[in-house]
Predict the structure.
Amino acid sequence: MSIMDYNGGALIGMKGKDCVAIATDKRFGIQAQTVSLDFTKVFQINPHTYMGFPGLATDIFTVYEKIMFRKRLYELKENRKISPKALASLVSNLLYENRFSPFFVEPMIVALDEVTLEPYMCDMDLIGCVNKSDNFVVGGTSSSQLYGLCEALWEPDMEEDQLFETISQALVSACNRDAISGWGAKVYIIKKDKVIVRDIKTRMD
Amino acid sequence: MYVKREDWIPGNFKNVPDTGRSTQNDIVQHGWTPITTTTSVLGVVFESGVALAADTLTSYGSMACFQNNPRILTVNQNIIVAAAGEYSDYQFIRDIVEEKVRTEKSLNDGISMKPKALHTWLSRVLYNRRTKMKPLWSTFLVAGIQNDVPFLGEIDKLGTAFVDDQIANGYGAYLALPLMRKAIDEKREKFNSKLTKDEAVDLLKKCMEVLYYRDARSHDKYQIGIVTKDSVEIQNLVLKPNWEVAKLVQGYE
Amino acid sequence: MDTIIDRGAPKARNFEPYASNGGSIVAISGKDFAIVASDTRLSEGYMIYTRKQSKLFQLSDKSVLGCTGCWCDTLSLTNIIQSQLKSYLYDHNTVMQPNSIAQLLSTLLYSRRFFPYYVYNVLAGLDNNGEGCLYSYDPVGHCEKVNYTAGGSSGVLMQPFLDSWLGNRTTDNPVTEEEALSLVKDAFTAAGERDIYTGDEVVYNIIKKDGIQTGVVQLRKD
């Protein structure tokens, strides 16, 4: 079993019409043993910028802190909020600096640009190869299941409510076919005037 | 050291009786790796029959060992077979197939084997050998006429068998198959018809030339076997390569 | 093949008796029908052998078997099943019922427990009451009766999709034939986007009281 599958987890980002969504499961485990049920892997970087971190739990925090450090330096120097695109480069650079002893996380960025409110979404591999997406990004131990569901359920220009239904259905159904993901879920719908956070009930086995 | 089962002491981790799969332990050396090998074979279906192409080189590692080893077999007036891979395994199969045909002829009932039957039979022979972990390290193309319809099928060393209108293996799958598919598709799109016999033979000649340029285990002497409803013929051919292209390959000095 | 117990085996063993030839199966059963579908791509690694190899095998006028995995094992297994069914027909003058075929298949697979047929099977049919029935297998003969299933290289992509549509169905809201067919098409279209071993075409068989209806749907060819 790969070190990427040590703690388990599932994450999705999805684009809608003038809004984006990111969803995470809440399980934290050590291989097959579930340890806690409130481990969300999504962090707010800026008011409209969110990041999800599938991968090794210990590296999630390390990478998150390192990103926040560099992001704050950037914002102090530039005296403006970082754009999602610049954030993607920042994270990609951070990961590639550790090309030969990588952090075992595959971050995703789901955001509305802080100035233009343009939706932006990307994910990357553990050494920072950025994959920009116009529909959805998936990550974690149930990424195959998520790909199958997102390819089938996603459609362009979804409104907020439909986006929520789709992303929740995809996450819940994928987690039900992955032994080390699930145990509750959290969905963030990012709109220009507010961010809606909802907890989802799932099977607890 | 092998210990008999009755000597085994429970809880003693040393000298545990061997529980490995029997097939793993009694494999004989024969057939583990191919030694005398041949390269790609190509096959293409045209409107009234099927054509196969294969060169006559048998390699011994990187040595071009035997330069006149034909490997397209005329089975009967209805079937031809071409082989790639270990040449001795082809000879082994050839002898059995020839024996089958002799037996069949001696019945004198006017019935002869059809290509689909030989295709299935070969797939069973190769599958049974792979199941014994003593594979025949060869790939076969079977071509013929099955009830007035051209037939072309492949069987690999595992017994993986399938039928298609154009088949190539080895380097041919990378270099020749795209050319063959392109020619067939273009003919179908432009004229809504299959290749003619002459077009198919010209296509195979072009493919053999392309393979000769880039496949280091290929050869300029080759055969094309053609089976149609009324005839089987095998042509012995020599490539006339055009090495003008060599001048265009630059930058490796 | 990586075996757990490998003592005494020669190190330079380089013959691999199995190949992974790709392909996927989806099957859904309903009140008076069963639908089973496969793609038609036969491949190994990055090589496509052929784009028109159906992986469905009709065993009788009301049962169809779908097989993916190692194609040479599939050929062998289906040949053995078909000859066994013929013997049964000649011995009993009756076509074997799907539930009996299901048990036969399990026994056949388990007979090769220590050198398995590397084949994932899905058996679809109509049972004695004319209702759709579906059996899903692992390569060594574990058999489970299910209402819907997805297997093969894209099984992991398609199964949760089917779960989300069919997982919570009750008897007063059974899946219709039209819905089942459109689910099959959607599942394969989605899988074809992300799985290189699934593509080219989908062939489906709808098994009903008055016969088996077949059809073809085009998929991505790249």
Remarks:
- Residues 12-20 of chain B have pLDDT under 50 and may be disordered.
- Chains B and A do not touch (no CB pair under 8 Å).
